[in-house]
Amino acid sequence: MFEKLLKIYYKHFGVDKHYYQILDQIFGIYPNNIELYKLALIHRSASLHLEDGTLINNERLEFLGDSILESVVSDYLYIEYPTEAEGFLTQMRSKIVSRTSLNALCLSLGLDQYVIYQTNGNYTQKHIWGDAMEAMLGAIYLDKGYEFINRLIINDLILNHMDIDEVSTTETDFKSRIIEWCQKSRRVIVFNTNHADGSTAKSPLFHSIIVVDGLEIGFGTGSSKKEAEQNASFSVSEIMVSDEAGDNILEMFDQSMKEDQNL
Question: Catalytic residues, which ones?
Fold first, then answer.
């Protein structure tokens, strides 16, 4: 009885009542260690400094949450799709735990409203929500244990906030797709990816150019090399949707190579 009254007091009158209410509203949970959840909402751009110079932010919880999420999703997919091969399961897991999916999940839950961050205008915000989502999962795991976070991820997050059928049919790995296309047509593909102008250690930005048989056919930018190359691949992915369009591009490559040989 006393414990129940204490919970009511903390939720409505305690110093951290705002955080208790957030967790109850979004996840339907009552925390044992509220400090974990407060930390999960502090993005590295708004890091706190301790007296000894140590930075306090959600990066370590993000790392833990990422691992927990992959473990739970792997187990879920293994059971849910008993006849599918490893390749399918790997792609499905990648889509579910992708930054795009986690950003969307964070926004869907309304968690983004409570993330603490700072930006100077150059810092990309599109990863902040996904980072916070992973950090929050890490905090819940430490506070409630694996079985609890397992049920929450599957029953509350995946089944209630993700369309698994849509995920299974959505193309996201455009880089692999264009590499396969080039291999099939025996073309040489190169990704020239480097730091873009204005890139810093705190706010990295990469620029990627796709070169096929010496011709630049697409480009993209991103806050990581992987993201920049995926965006560059997406910029030319529609070329491969139509066989006719693809054939026209191949003819362009051949013509270019002939012209180079005649020089």
Answer: 66, 134
